[in-house]
Write a structure and sequence with these properties.
The protein is of the alpha+beta class and 499 residues long. The chain has helices spanning 5-30, 45-52, 56-62, 82-88, 119-134, 141-160, 172-189, 195-198, 205-221, 223-229, 232-238, 247-262, 273-279, 284-314, 317-332, 342-345, 349-353, 355-358, 395-398, 402-405, 422-433, 446-463, and strands spanning 69-73, 76-79, 96-97, 170-171, 367-372, 378-380, 383-385, 390-394, 464-468, 476-479, 483-486, 489-494. This is Cytochrome P450.
Length: 499
């Protein structure tokens, strides 16, 4: 006997409902001993509502009331305890990456160092790519950073320098990204894309990447969406294409063309990131995927730190003046070259203290990086974690831990790292340090990112003065899984000459 269409649909709906109820009960029971929002115990509704209401900051900060381990989804936990993360990310950890990492995939057909899930495969690939990500393939990566700092200063003087009777507003949200994009593409290809030539989004990367990262942030937290968006048909239908005229697809096309040209018979590997990947045996597809990751991860995260640092200096006169004073003294005492070297920058106490509080401000990735417990499970702080449970970091809560950073944790105050004991400073730095990852998952581009931040902030503050154009609206900030900024309009003037 055949069923008519309404009956068939009703039956399918009823069976799906029964399946959902059964799996929800099973899921709830498995982690029922771990506290968290009620909706998170059986569904992803808490994460969905948090995202669509734009309440990520408030919601994830509120989780501390549940303790150090909190349930935010049927199989997802987050922690605000740096020591738990240190255990999970230790060199001998048996945790593995959760499929959450699939949401950060910039190449449609090839996994990269960031989203490969198998530990052994990850370790092999990291060995092959480390020299490319560290900038060592370029000889001295500091020379590359210096060249782009000079281009940034030149662009500002030519196009954005205001005077007493003339305002030329600059969107530093865009400028910071032009700088980091040209640094990373110079490291990757031996030549920058040219964003700093005239202060333009050459290929439309910035125009499109924020939209992609917003979708990726939502997809990462919700497996159903993730499996749809990053399936073969999903990437084929909705993903960027190398034939696109603008955006991530256009950059993908440029990367593919460059890789193809380099792999032509007789082509000699060059002294840049791509050349290093080739020398270490990566296939053309692997080179494409790693280079796209290098551009994406190496530009947006560093730009977020640079503009965040400048924003909080501009809005904290005490810190702004003190850093200016330290720079002036270093120049007058001939303690620094031009541009400053990373080694010289590391000897300036206030400059070193100033980037640290930036991590008390929303960082680029506010939560995530989920790792799955081994099949036999694990015990953390006396709590049993069933095998396969994914645990991620709650960066927003970690960086606002009053027990670690003090009761004035919301205040941008570099002095907290200078006025405390050596033991206390080490505790604070260790808590922030784990946000770079640990063990096999330590950020491969960490040293380049820190070098960029230290050097460019010093040089900008050495030669220019900065002021917000509209203090009532300093920037547009979007805090989802990641933090994004745009329309950071500032007035830049020539500073008193120091050398």
């Amino acid at each position: 006997m055949s069923l008519n269409l309404p009956t068939a649909l009703a039956s399918a709906f009823f069976l799906s409902l029964l399946w959902y109820i059964a799996t929800s009960i099973t899921t709830y029971h498995r982690l029922r001993h771990i506290p968290g929002p009620w909706l998170a115990s059986f569904s992803y509704l808490w994460l969905i509502l948090t995202t669509f209401r734009n309440h990520t900051r408030e919601s994830f900060l509120s989780l501390v009331k549940y303790g150090a381990l909190v349930r935010v989804g049927p199989n997802y936990l987050v922690t605000s305890d740096p020591e738990i993360l240190r255990k999970i990310q230790s060199a001998r950890s048996t945790y593995v990456r959760d499929p959450w990492y699939a949401s950060v995939k910039l190449h449609p057909h090839q996994d990269s160092l960031f989203n490969i899930l198998d530990n052994d495969a990850h370790d092999i690939l990291k060995t092959k790519t480390m020299s490319g990500y560290s900038g060592r393939e370029n000889g001295d990566p500091e020379v590359v950073v210096d060249s782009q700092i000079i281009r940034l200063l030149t662009l500002i003087r030519r196009k954005y320098l205001s005077t007493d009777d003339k305002l030329l507003s600059a969107d530093f949200g865009a400028l910071s990204r032009y700088f980091t994009l040209d640094v990373i593409t110079r490291l990757a290809f031996g030549e920058p894309f040219g964003h700093l030539d005239d202060g333009t989004d050459v290929y439309g990367w910035i125009e499109h990447i924020d939209r992609i990262l917003t979708v990726a942030g939502l997809a990462g937290d919700i497996p159903l969406i993730r499996n749809m968006v990053f399936s073969k048909w999903g990437t084929r239908l909705f993903g960027p294409k190398p034939t696109d005229k603008r955006g991530v697809g256009r950059v993908t096309g440029v990367v593919q063309a460059t890789v193809r040209q380099r792999f032509e018979q007789g082509a000699k590997p060059q002294n840049d990131g791509l050349g290093g990947f080739m020398r270490n045996g990566l296939t053309p597809l692997e080179c494409e995927a790693e280079t796209m990751l290098q551009i994406g991860a190496g530009s947006d995260t560093s730009a977020t730190a640079i503009r965040g640092m400048l924003m909080y200096l501009m809005t904290t006169p005490r810190a702004y003046i003190r850093l200016k004073s330290e720079i002036k003294h270093a120049v007058e005492q001939n303690q620094v070259s031009s541009p400053i070297t990373f080694e010289q920058a590391q000897k300036l106490p206030y400059l070193q203290a100033s980037p640290l509080p930036f991590y008390l401000i929303p960082s680029h990735l506010n939560h995530g990086h989920y790792k799955r417990a081994p099949p036999e499970g694990d015990t953390i702080n006396g709590i049993f974690i069933p095998g396969g449970t994914a645990i991620g970091h709650n960066t927003l809560a970690i960086t606002r831990n009053e027990a670690i950073f003090g009761q004035d944790v919301e205040v941008f105050r570099p002095e907290r790292f200078l006025e405390c004991s050596g033991e206390k400073r080490k505790e604070m730095e260790r808590a922030l340090d784990i946000l770079w990852g640990g063990g096999r998952w330590t950020c491969a581009g960490r040293n380049v990112a820190l070098m960029e931040l230290n050097k460019v902030i010093f040089e900008l503050m050495r030669v220019f003065d900065f002021q917000l154009v509209d203090i009532r609206k300093p920037w547009e900030e979007f805090i989802l899984t990641i933090t994004m900024h745009k329309n950071m309009w500032i007035r830049i003037t020539e500073a008193d000459k120091l050398d």
